[in-house]
Specification:
about 35% helix; Spore Coat Polysaccharide Biosynthesis Protein SpsA, Chain A; two-stranded antiparallel ribbon; nine-stranded mixed beta sheet; about 25% strand; binds uridine 5'-triphosphate; alpha/beta
Length: about 300
């Protein structure tokens, strides 16, 4: 018997957080609009959506986040100004920012946690599987992280999350998976069956060295689990609680990302991403490398 699964067409990008780790830069400006070289962080996530076959991006926004809407909107005045100055390449670049994607916006009135932000998108997502991408995380690698998760969903009909190896002293800042190998799959050792997850484990108690890194493909049942979730100690509804319920149901895979993960919502992570992307830049990467070598470190 063949099962026809609903396609993963939609992605939820929660951008309503307060960005406290990046103050004072984020007092008036959305963290997701901080540029890594020449593109705001959120554009990297939207480009990953495009590369993964997503057709509809749902932003969960909040106060002071209007710049994100403007960034993905049409800009006819800017385009005609650039055209009139003979800068048609730049005009084209501005036109292509949205990549033909359909955008919707919904508002999380209070930053009550990632789980709450995802729940806020329920009506726009409807009864179909969907992706979630954290806009302050840039995933680098040969295959778009979300694309791999969608392929896993297509093959298994189950939710999937991206994980990465994390240094022992950093595990306390992550959701950490308790998982077992899933032999025989085409993803080899990179695919794991998740049995449980622990949010920010105390030092020495983490069930593995694999931390959840900000990409998810989830079945719509996740909403039922999130609706039942009570706010935790800091008054937030964690996405991890919904993921634990999926895992306990035997419905969650983890994919070990084949590439680098940059947590650019953190100052050091942001600087590392900036340096790496600048070194790769075709127009000034070589000059930048030379400059770094000349610095008296
Ligand atoms: P983070 O925890 O990295 O973002 O959430 P934050 O809360 O803005 O940042 P800090 O920790 O205070 O510095 C990951 C993503 O989820 C969104 C954030 O905007 C960010 O892109 N988020 C988080 C929401 O949309 N709503 C929330 O309630 C929390």
């Amino acid at each position: 018997m063949t099962t026809t699964r609903k396609r993963v067409r939609k992605a939820v990008l929660p951008v309503a957080g307060l960005g406290t780790r990046f103050l004072p830069a984020t007092k008036a400006m959305p963290k997701e609009m901080l540029p890594v070289v020449d593109k705001p962080l959120i554009q990297y996530a939207v480009e990953e959506c495009i590369a993964s076959g997503i057709e509809h991006v749902i932003f969960v926004t909040g106060r002071r986040k209007n710049a994100i809407e403007d960034h993905f909107d049409f800009a006819p005045e800017l385009e005609s100004f650039l055209e009139s100055k003979g800068k048609s390449q730049q005009a084209q670049m501005v036109r292509e920012i949205s990549g033909g994607m359909h955008f919707s916006y919904t508002r999380q009135n209070e930053a009550l946690g990632l789980g709450h932000a995802v729940l806020t998108a329920q009506e726009l997502v409807g009864d179909e599987p969907f992706a979630v991408l954290l806009g302050d995380v840039i995933m680098d690698g040969p295959v778009a992280a979300t694309r791999s998760l969608i392929e896993i969903y297509n093959e298994t009909g189950k939710g999937a999350i991206t994980v990465q190896e994390v240094e022992p002293e950093e595990l306390q800042f992550y959701g950490v998976i308790d998982a077992e190998k899933a032999p025989g799959s085409r993803w080899g050792d990179r695919l794991l069956k998740v049995n449980n997850l622990v949010e920010k484990p105390k030092t020495g108690t983490a069930p593995s060295n694999l931390g959840v890194s900000g990409r998810y493909v989830l079945p719509p049942e996740i909403f039922e689990f999130l609706e039942k979730t009570k706010p935790g100690a800091v008054g937030e509804i964690q996405l991890t609680d919904g993921l634990v319920a999926l895992a306990k149901n035997g419905s969650l895979w983890a994919h070990v990302h084949d590439g680098k993960t940059h947590d650019a919502g953190d100052k050091l992570g942001f600087l590392k991403a900036t340096v790496e992307f600048a070194l790769r830049n075709p127009s000034f990467g070589a000059k930048f490398r030379k400059y770094l070598k000349e610095l008296d470190l």
